[in-house]
Design a protein that fits this description.
Elements (H helix, E strand, L loop, with lengths): L2 E4 L6 E2 L2 E2 L3 H10 L3 E5 L7 H10 L9 E2 L1 H8 L4 E5 L12 E2 L6 E4 L7 H5 L2 H12 L3 E4 L5 E4 L2 E4 L2 H11 L4 E2 L5 H11 L6 E5 L2 H10 L3 E5 L6 H7 L5 E3 L5 H8 L1
Helix pairs in contact: 5-6
């Protein structure tokens, strides 16, 4: 049996609409005895809320099977003074971090959601404050550097653009706390007690997840849903072990191949 890391947005659902066959695929993977962990760069909702939303869509999972970037930030930045440009909903998951408006040890950028809140969080004033703190020596962290994500309205700009802008303006490189950072993958494997070479990363994201997982020694399954674009796969130079139409086809493929 395999250990499987399942991406969420674009693999299980798009804008709250389950990918056809995904609910049944997760149930079948469990029946086959595979060890599952749900890994996401979603940085706009509490872990408990995300888990409950997935259960309402029909997916069976416990809260502690879901690994999120705010929890990773809480571990990494515990005890530090942090200027956090994040969606307000995730603040409770940043427990242990002292959130401040100036004299920060670190600047933390989260991701965007589909509401108008990013207009306020990533305003010129807030980005200017972050720039000033970095100029004064604060470290730069981000929950992820995603350029965009797929929604029911089409591709939407994500906060990676703001991270890149601050890197460009300050000359400070951001530490990525979510995928594709090795620390994030290592935490997921530790939770499963898994070895990289025996673990599959299932994703719709070629550049971040396939590249990152392969660099970490994992096997990769790319699905043609969510943000998948054939031209991105072609230009990446990456070769996943398998490319599937959707998660719905993974259980049968594993049954034949393992």
């Amino acid at each position: 049996m395999a250990c499987i890391l399942l991406d969420i947005d674009g693999v299980l659902h798009v804008s709250g609409e389950p990918i056809p066959g995904a609910v049944e695929a997760v149930a079948r993977l469990r029946e086959q005895g595979h060890s599952l962990r749900f890994v996401t760069n979603n940085s706009t909702r509490l872990r408990a809320v995300l888990a409950e939303e997935l259960r309402l869509l029909g997916f069976a999972l416990e809260d502690d099977e879901l690994q999120t970037t705010p929890r990773a930030a809480a571990r990494e930045l515990a005890g530090k003074r942090v200027l956090a440009l994040v969606m307000g909903a995730i603040v409770p998951d940043l427990e242990g971090i002292e959130l401040v408006g100036d004299r920060a040890d670190a600047v933390l950028l989260g991701g965007c959601d589909e509401t108008t809140e990013p207009n306020q969080v990533f305003s010129w004033m807030n980005l200017g404050r972050a720039f000033a703190e970095l100029q004064m020596g604060a470290e730069l962290y981000c929950l992820h550097k995603n350029k965009w994500w797929q929604t029911s309205r089409g591709p939407l700009l994500d906060a990676g653009a703001f991270v890149a802008g601050l890197e460009y303006a300050t000359g400070v490189d951001a530490t990525v706390l979510g995928k594709p950072s090795p620390a994030y993958f290592a935490a997921a494997l530790d939770a499963l007690g898994a070895q990289p070479e025996l673990t599959w990363m299932v994703t719709d994201d070629v550049e971040a997840d396939v590249r990152g997982a392969q660099s970490f020694g994992m096997r990769t399954a790319l699905v043609r849903t969510g943000k998948f674009r054939p031209e991105t796969l072609e230009s990446s130079g990456l070769v996943p072990e398998i490319v599937l139409s959707s998660l719905a086809h993974l259980p049968e493929w594993l049954e034949r191949s393992l």
